[in-house]
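User: Second chain of the day. Same drill as before.
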Amino acid sequence: MPTPLKLNVYKCIVFAGMIFFSLLSSCGGSKMSPGSIQSGPEGSYRVISLDQTPIRDTQPSMILDLNQARVSGNSGCNDYSAALVMDKNTSDEIRMDSVMTTKMYCDDQVMAVEYLFLGNMTKAQRWSQSGDTLYLSNAEGTNILIAVKTQSQ
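Assistant: Same format as last time:
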């Protein structure tokens, strides 16, 4: 008969295995992997509006790379990079996860734009495009970020 200590070790191993496989299966789904996004906003953009307010002095940039499933650029003061997640079953869904930034500090006005930009970028759930203008909206459908395509293509 196994000792109570061995039973606890076995229970822990079984429990850990169940968690591992449930996490592994939840990572699948319908999300796009790098290189599998077929269409969407791609290229370099300059942000012109945050929370329906035009911005002029500090304009963050966005480079959307569908092949690598990444978005990167300058957030006003710092450079950033994030995972670009799009749903292959819903053509207008978009999400930007795992944002990484450099850690420089700029004046308060620039930092305010940067914080708002990074916050809105991670709140974005849908995208639409009209000509060279990209619109990112939140869960309520409000445009929280508007950007125009730059000519550096």
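The chain is about 25% helix and 35% strand.

User: Great, on to the next one.
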